[in-house]
Protein 1
Amino acid sequence: MADTETLQIKNVHKTFRVGKQDIDVLEDINLNVSAGEFVSVIGASGCGKTTFLRLLVGLEGEYQGDILLNGKRLNGPSINRGIVFQNHRLLPWLTIEKNVGLGLESKKGNNKAQIVQDHIDLVGLKGFCKSYPYQLSGGMSQRAAIARALVNRPEILLLDEPLGALDSLTRMYMQNELERIWKLENITAVMVTHDVEEAVYLSDRIVIMSCRPGKIKRIIPVPLSRPRDRASYDFMRIKEEVLKEFHLQAEEHFAYSI
Ligand SMILES: Nc1ncnc2c1ncn2[C@@H]1O[C@H](COP(=O)(O)OP(=O)(O)O)[C@@H](O)[C@H]1O
Ligand SMILES: [Mg+2]
């Protein structure tokens, strides 16, 4: 059954050489992600989450183990994986349409302008094609970053704390938007987050990582129907279960984030 999974991560181990020392950052990572699944990765700062995503994008050349996409070992970055970072990383001197179109594969030819427009519409930025990044709010900039990541119609969308820099109301609104886009595009998503509630709200499964070296400690399924009710008993129960993994319980930790 595992061989039919879209993304297979098998016995992955990542070491960084710092000076004369090898530092183990990820150890024994095993995870299969199915087509269309939404998986969140949650763990303390420095436990290797960004490194893990960089491996999935193909930005970290050397690692032990295997990362397979549709049965083929990843070999460098490719347009079938799009990534969104915490900071939107839009180029300030380009309009939104130019930013979104920048990475668009050249063979799309004459259709390019339409594809860019469609993705700008998809993320709810209709009418802002000619705006510059400084003219957009934080949430709008992240929308543009999501459009840029999706413009080549990747199979997998990787998100590294994509909503981490937003205020809490915008963040909740953008969580709904992410869910809408994920469903509409029927895409496989792997998202790193620090926010337990965000992970429970959006994910089919939550991967909990422990630190030094980063390992998968536990995978918690979230079998709740969507859209999810943050105030429901089942939602709170799963949130509590995740918090317990970090020795935090709802009644003693009101911020709900780690
Ligand atoms: N290119 C690198 N060279 C050396 N060490 C690195 C490099 N990238 C990340 N690290 C180290 O790997 C660990 C995990 O980093 P990172 O993946 O960014 O963690 P997280 O995203 O969970 O906060 C940290 O200790 C960090 O200092
Ligand atoms: Mg990180």
Protein 2
Amino acid sequence: MTSKTSRYFGSMTQASLLIIGSGTSSGVPIPGCDCPVCTSQEPRNVRMRTSAVLRLPSGNQVLIDATTDLRHQALRAGIRRVHAVLFTHAHADHILGIDDLRAYNFLQRTAIPCYGFASTLDSIRRTFWYVFHPDETYQGSSAPRLQFNTLHPYEPLSIEGVPILPLELLHGRTVVAGFRIGDLVYATDCNAIPQRSWEAMRGARTLILDALRYNPHPTHFTIPQAEQLSAELGIPQTYLIHLSHDVDYQTVSKNLRSGVELAYDGLELPIRL
Ligand SMILES: [Zn+2]
Ligand SMILES: [Zn+2]
Ligand SMILES: [Zn+2]
């Protein structure tokens, strides 16, 4: 926790967001890669796939995405319960940890409520066919128990009385769910913000935003694009996520504009609801 973020703690703080993964789809380091970032000793260059945990005032926890690294992330962050999962979209790096949700089914003895846009839930149903269409070919192992709920853009859902507004983000041609939660916006995997989402972001104090690297990419914001967006939105503090192995924490951090920082695994940000 940096001094910049701790100023919001105190009686106003009712919830927080813990970044449990800040890396792109490959994770960082990449197996077999000898580049300076993948071989560095800087712990903030070690990035699991992008994901976060919303900690509610009750202490209950909502997972954002279930990444390929979920089991390891859960052990590292000490995630002992998962009360719900918000899915941003169905790309492999955001859903392939779904089977590891079984640990929480066993502990909690109940199905886990999961939320996503209809297109995302349909894609998950296809990928995890054995969860939804069990047959004899999958005998001998258990499947996760999930209770699916369809999110509609700009219609808030409420979890334990905490309003969460789903926003549409564009990730190439894929529509991704962003979330406005109190004074925080979570916007992974995107390279364009529709006007209505732009308006819904106004007044936020913290933006968690996709910024893959410096070089252009067809479906992710670059770091300069994210810096520009952050300035145009006027949000005081932006943290960049979904970072590739082109991004050395220390070198890039020195060159970011004021109010923009790189996120890292383990960063926890307060939310004012
Ligand atoms: Zn991704
Ligand atoms: Zn590398
Ligand atoms: Zn994606």
Protein 3
Amino acid sequence: MTLTAHAVVGAAVITLLPAHPVLGISLAFCSHFLVDAIPHWDYPISSRSVNPSFGEKMRMDRALFLDAARIGCDGLLGFTLALLFFHSLGPAWLITAGAAAAMLPDPLQFVYAHFKHEPLVSLQCFHLWMHTKKELKKQPALGVASQLLFIFIVVSLRLLAIH
Ligand SMILES: [Zn+2]
């Protein structure tokens, strides 16, 4: 899923256990794989040096710039929404940590693409194994709408659960 969706889930999870940040961070990290198991849409990765399926040498081209802009905006939106929705449930550092931990498996795929060593190899295998095979590839509108709905449900459930 998008980094935004992962960030919101991670922040929701960590605010359930504000007294146990290490456990919260671990659960937020694990949430990434469960969320990826849900059939969803992912925006395409243009650069072959960013896409873990290729892992080619870094090339400063248009595709890399586009990916950096798209992924950067996605991550930033994730942090922003997580803080916006859950600021009343915990300190900003805790929410930021939960969001970051939940997004982390995706940047780790990029690291894996250029550094194929353990534990990244096993983590990548697990990531791919957990990831849904039902991708909404050619339906970006449905893909975006379904992730907005998913975020809405997660935020609603978390805010309804309160403390
Ligand atoms: Zn993922």
